[in-house]
Amino acid sequence: MKTIYLIPMGNIAVDIAQSVALCLWHTFGVEVKQKEFIEIPDEAYDRKRMQYSSIHILRMLHKSAPKEAFRILALIDKDLFIPVLSFVYGHAQFEGKVGIVSLARLRQEFYGFPEDRELLTTRTLKEVVHETGHMFGLTHCNDITCAMTLSTNIRSLDRKGVALCKSCTLLLKENMLEKYK
Ligand SMILES: [Zn+2]
Ligand SMILES: [Zn+2]
């Protein structure tokens, strides 16, 4: 049985983690194990940028990954970056074992609006499907309503759905049957 380990890092609400687990099971047809919260490594923090390096965290997750974990998805409440971009909503190794999604810029409070729990959950699920899709061999999609479309700002993120489009769904099915047996 293919299992995704879901790892909360920092302050991740239990109900959001549960929604994510359900969505992963529903979208990818895999077993999801919710793991204990783990500390965010201090070394991942970049003082100049005041953000956390997703590359650093992915490397750490990869190193400490249990063998039985087919894929590992972490949720974090800190802002993430990769060197060439000012920020990322999430980051995953293509067809790799580890991925991460940041909730920092998915909160309405980040944009000066009051908290909106439902919107935060929906945005989180979209990014979770996107990054997990990369781990299962999906690339960016031209359909702006598909979860695999690239979102570089919150507007384009809000425009897309939680679900995969027809062609991404087909490709995922193929990959699941042939590549990731
Ligand atoms: Zn992407
Ligand atoms: Zn698509």
Report what the structure shows.
The chain has 5 helices and 8 strands, in the order βαβββαββββααα. The longest helix is centred in the C-terminal third of the chain and has 19 residues, at 117-135. It has 181 residues and is of the alpha/beta class. The termini are close together. It is 35% helix and 18% strand. The strands form 2 sheets. Strands 2-1-5-8-7 form a 5-stranded mixed sheet, with helices on both faces. Strands 3-4-6 form a 3-stranded mixed sheet. The protein has a single domain (3-139), classed as Collagenase (Catalytic Domain), CATH 3.40.390.10. 36% of the residues are buried. The model has no long low-confidence stretch (mean pLDDT 95). Residues 130, 134, 140, 150 line the site of one zinc ion.
Specify the helix fraction band: 25-40%
Structural class by SSE content? alpha/beta
**Total domains, how many?**
1
Global morphology: globular
The total count of strands amounts to: 8
The CATH class, by name, is: Alpha Beta
Helix and strand string, N-terminal first?
A: EHEEEHEEEEHHH
**CATH topology (fold) name:** Collagenase (Catalytic Domain)
What is the CATH architecture assignment?
A: 3-Layer(aba) Sandwich
Distance between the amino and carboxyl termini: 9 Å
Query: Within the largest sheet, what's the order of strands?
Result: 2-1-5-8-7
